[in-house]
Amino acid sequence: SQQGEEDPQALSIQEGENATMNCSYKTSINNLQWYRQNSGRGLVHLILIRSNEREKHSGRLRVTLDTSKKSSSLLITASRAADTASYFCATDEKAAGNKLTFGGGTRVLVKP
Amino acid sequence: DVKVTQSSRYLVKRTGEKVFLECVQDMDHENMFWYRQDPGLGLRLIYFSYDVKMKEKGDIPEGYSVSREKKERFSLILESASTNQTSMYLCASSLGREETQYFGPGTRLLVL
User: Fold this and answer.
1) Which residue from A84, B2, B7, B40 could staple onto B27, CB 3.0 to 4.6 Å apart?
2) Half-sphere exposure of residue B99, counting CA atoms within 13 Å on the CB side?
3) Distance (Å) from the alpha carbon of A65 to chain B's nearest alpha carbon
4) Contact B58/B111 with Cβ under 8 angstroms?
5) Residue in chain A lying closest to B6 (CA)
6) Which DSSP state fits B103?
7) CA atoms of A13 and B73, how far apart (whole Å)
């Protein structure tokens, strides 16, 4: 299975609600990154959190990292219709020559 | 802003054709990457390059080759296209090995 696996695979919420998605991984990492992809487009970087950090914020985004559980979560607060996209976590594995390994993504639909 | 461009958004080729996908970045990044993205499989790394004329195999290099003659340009080559290479191809670049990757808009390739 993939290094980074997101949960849930899909999420549907109303505008204004919060959206939370999780990412689990298997091996030691240098950092973990979250990306967003709008339909049919390239990925856009959201946040990078290093292995010695526990929480990071960027605007309405909050990312946590628990290295003991090998998991991360991405929280989008006060969601907007424009947040509709797929969200991917990517892990930079120490043992893999610093390549990024992407999970399968969480598809988020924010209904107006 | 970092800009990563890909030569085509959509491409239709026939089985057995030689296909070139071009990627150019304008930020003097050392590292460049080629991924393919398929439904349910997420992003998978095909090849990457950490320097001019240098290349390393990713997770699924079979059926592909790459060329990096200049720092800003990384080409993906399908020597003899096959239908199972129908996919979305994404190019990315990064400054350092552990840093954020910047993605191009993607090329959707259909092999008939």
Assistant:
1) B2
2) 13
3) 17
4) no
5) A42
6) E
7) 41
Single-letter amino acid code for the residue at A60: R
Q: Cα separation of B85 and B78, whole Å?
A: 9
Tell me the shortest Cα–Cα distance from B88 to chain A, in angstroms.
Answer: 9
Using CA atoms, how far apart are residues B90 and B86, in angstroms rounded to an integer? 13
Report the C-alpha dihedral over residues A10, A110, A72, B93, rounded to 10 degrees: 90
Per-residue pLDDT, B2: 67
pLDDT tens-digit profile of A1-52?
345 688 888 999 999 999 999 999 988 888 999 999 998 888 999 999 999 9
Q: Which two tokens stand for residue A111?
A: 């209904």
Residues B58, B67 contacting (CB under 8 angstroms): no
Q: What is the b/e burial string over B20-51, where b = at least 16 CB atoms within 10 angstroms of the residue's CB? A: ebbbbbeeebbbbbbbbbeeeebbbbbbbbbe
What average pLDDT does the segment B37-62 reach? 91
Place of tokens 């085509």: B8
Contact of A21 with chain B, judged by CB distance below 8 Å, is answered with no
Peptide bond into A8 cis (omega under 30): yes
Residue B7 DSSP label? S
Total CB pairs under 8 A between chain A and B: 53
pLDDT tens-digit map of B57-83 = 999 999 999 999 999 999 999 999 999
According to DSSP, the β-strands at B10-13 and B107-111 are parallel
